[in-house]
Amino acid sequence: MAKQTVLVLFGGVSNEYYVSRRTAASILREIDRERFAPVPVGITADGRWYLCEENIPAILDDTWMENAVPAILSPDRSVHGLVVFTPAGTRTQHIDVIFPAVHGQNCEDGALQGLMELSGVPYVGVGVTAAAVTFDKAITHIVAERAGIPMARWLLVEEGEDFPETERRVRETLGYPCFVKPANSGSSVGCSAARDADALAAALALARREDRRILVEELVVAQEVECAVMGNRELCAPRTGEIVSNEGFYDFDSKYLNDTAQLYVPARISPEKAEEVQELAKRVYRALDCRGLSRVDFFVKADGTVLFNEINTLPGFTSISMYPKMFIDAGMAYPEIITRLIELATEANGS
Q1: What's the domain range around 203?
Q2: What is the CATH number of the domain that holds 118?
Q3: Which uninterrupted H or E stretch holds 87?
Q4: How far is 106 from 83, CA to CA, in rounded Å?
Q5: Which of 222-231, 311-320, 321-330 has the lowest mean pLDDT?
């Protein structure tokens, strides 16, 4: 049986360019070589596409562009893959499935999904609409609320809004402390807590570096519990996980640069609460029209209240990422996770 060619796409014009390279390295290490032939393609931080050698150390230290050749994913479905520009001329390369090992803006917000959809090549993860909706935290909250999903109180700060008016709304609606995050960003980039008006001004300025629209939420004191979901029509959510950050919240550094966060799989909640989280995760997944995979994050308060926090439709696959950890704890080996996601991509795209 011929191996399927899997385009492992990484990098991108995104504040999560660094994280993406680590995800790609993990996938390339663990993919089943008996079934799949990986084809690594990197997108530079300024948006150039290259077909590169399968050199994991080079991907990690950002020297992967050496000996790489320009290549693009063609929107022409007759190509069904890459157009590669070599010194000897232009050639095409057929691709069976795309595994987007990418995160953040221009990567998981619907932009890349649109190109993959045009290409006609099956791809891992959600479609265009779900990607766009889930990446915008404000729109996610609106849809989830309409679906009856419980969540913390929140408000949206638009670009150009007068700070005294924003501060009044926050003080009267949410109170202090509160939590500030860009509506469109990931890996906790641009997120911070605010305990008074001065801190709110600083937090808004930090968030505006990432996006013009900002979400402000009440600061919930609770366990941070996550649930990994996999599937298209039939969903699997076998485990919950819990994050305890010594920094006060699970920020970028805690996720990727140090070991300050403590991770528990399964989460330290009762079996009844775990089941509630799992069922709510599936409800969120379906309400947002997800497919393939997502990690759904919740708060579990001391009184047992479960509140939806956010969803990540292309969660990290690094060695310390929670999504694979939850499935591994449920008995699924890392290569099996990758294989199943590729199968789901083929199933969803009808190819």
Answers
A1: 154-218
A2: 3.40.50.20
A3: none
A4: 20
A5: 311-320
Structure tokens at 334: 């890392």
**Backbone phi, psi, residue 117, to 5°:** -65, -45
Q: Are residues 343 and 266 part of one domain?
A: yes
Using an 8 Å Cβ cutoff, are 73 and 87 in contact? no
pTM: 0.91
pLDDT band per the 50, 70, 90 thresholds, residue 257: very low
Per-residue pLDDT, 250 = 44
Q: What is the CATH number for 269? A: 3.30.470.20
Regarding whether 189 and 100 lie in a shared domain, the answer is: no
Q: Among residues 331, 104, 316, 101, which one has the least CA distance to residue 236?
A: 331
Is 128 domain-assigned? no
Rounded distance, CA 66 to CA 68, Å? 5
Together in a domain, 140 and 259 = yes
User: Are residues 212 and 179 located together in one domain of the fold?
Assistant: yes
Q: 90: buried, middle or exposed (CB in 10 Å: 19+, 13-18, 0-12)?
A: exposed
Domains of the chain: total: 3
The helix-helix angle for 137-146 and 128-135 (nearest 10°) equals: 100
- Mark whether 273 and 311 lie in a shared domain: yes
Tokens of 64: 């992967």
> Helix (H, G, I), strand (E, B), or coil: what is residue 17?
helix
3-state secondary structure of 113: helix
pLDDT tens digit sequence for 50-90: 999 999 999 999 999 999 999 999 999 999 999 999 999 99
The full length of the chain comes to 351
- CATH code, domain carrying 170: 3.30.1490.20
CA-based R_g, the chain, Å: 20
Residue-wise pLDDT tens digits, 153-175:
999 999 999 999 999 999 999 99
Both tokens assigned to 249? 């919240």
Q: What pLDDT, on a 0 to 100 scale, did the predictor assign at position 245?
A: 80
Inter-residue contact 74 to 60 (CB < 8 Å): no
